[in-house]
Amino acid sequence: MNLKLWGESTQRFQKLSGTGPTFFTLHIHMASHRVLQYVAGAKTKPPTVYMRCHVKPGASKVREGITALTDSTIELCVSAVPKDGESNKAVLTVLSEALNVPKSDLQITRGAKSRDKIIALGGKAVQDSETECISRIMKQLDDAIEANGS
């Protein structure tokens, strides 16, 4: 049996059989925070948390930091301009300070040349259980927003 996958919150599958395709829908309960996705590691690979971010480069130095947290994205401002990867470095610095992790534990996996980015967090910061890890990161992000005065 071969399965094809469509959609995001509702999974639609196509079952290929000898008589032709049969479609069925599987509803999956998704986490309330789509902004963070915890991916458990395999035997040799540690777990990773993926964060969806929307970056506003070229902001004033006063506004630099995490400004908002929604169900779908972490919004942050950086004063660096998007030239020669400067704003990407600033994004990693802002997140590193907010989450209290080394910059080496953060990596931009998608959106290096876009304002919308997916950033992977690995290392010791994600060694807890999924629930504990997501709760701790959400609290750290909320604290960073309060500290930024947004």
TrEMBL record:
Coiled coil: none annotated. It comes from the Eukaryota. It holds the Pfam family DUF167. GO terms for cellular component: cytoplasm. InterPro entries: DUF167, YggU-like_sf. HAMAP family: UPF0235. PANTHER family: UPF0235 PROTEIN C15ORF40. Belongs to the UPF0235 family. This is YggU-like protein. It comes from Phomopsis amygdali.
